[in-house]
Amino acid sequence: METPLNADFPPDPPAPTPAQRGYWVGPRHLAGDDGRLYDAVADTLTGLGWTTLTIIRGRQEPDEGPEDRQVLRSTVLHISPDTLRWAQWVLADEPFYLGDLPVAWQISARQETNSPLAQWSAYFTPDVPGEVLVDFLTALDARDQPGLPLGGPEAVVDAVTAHGWIRDIDQPATAAIDPTFATHIRLGDVPALIQDADPRSLIREAYETGPAGWQAWAEPVLGARCLWVASFSSSTPDDLVAAFAGSLSSTAPVLRRVLPDSTQDRLLRAPAT
Fold first, then answer.
1. How many CA atoms does the CB half-sphere of 217 hold within 13 Å?
2. Could you tell me the CA-to-CA distances from 62 to 59, 68, 160, 215 in Å, in that order?
3. Predicted TM-score of the model (pTM)
4. What is the pLDDT of residues 162-217, one digit of tens each?
5. Which residues of 196-215 are buried (b: 16+ CB within 10 A; e: fewer)?
6. How far is the C-alpha of 90 from the C-alpha of 106, rounded, in Å?
């Protein structure tokens, strides 16, 4: 079913105004997306040579002018030159939710061009730091075979513990948390509607446990709404999740003009000159 365009989440959120003061802030995983999650990713994909398509669907009555057409769906789709990988900006489509947050980017890859199905998909809500998605997509673009499994769960946990994160005491090989106990990454149950080519994901019943996938989220206040959520389907290569995890946990500061309300008091900041 098509859904009305969500006015609260335009295809291209407004960029920070020039008058807003910039800061170098950390930790990165609590810094938000600076209101530029679309721009940060789209600019990178354009630089990598990906093709950009805008898909708009609507309804128009016979006697209605073009300017009065009701837009039902608008998706910006970025496709790699070999067509094996693609990224969709779906925020304006009122997408499904992860952790009570709408999905903003859906990134998918397939192993062969003659296959209509994605081998795996990854989903990211607003306020995932743009730098992290850029690093994930750059690693994806560099892969010759984007659907081929590489690495293992240990690579993901190693990527964050190298930056000071703590292994989960109950799942030391497949879960970790940042030193402030606000951000988590874990191999576990995959939320509903996550697309994956693994037959076990396609045929499992609602009450059954399917193949595990990586999940990450920032919950600055325990029990409150998450700042952001990321979900990787079970077939997502571990080395790509490790690229995401390594960038997410990086101690390098990021430039921000817009700070999340829920984490302003937890961010270290220095004026950008």
1. 21
2. 10, 11, 57, 47
3. 0.86
4. 999 999 999 999 999 999 999 999 999 988 878 888 776 555 555 456 789 999 99
5. bbbeebeeeeeeeebeebbb
6. 7
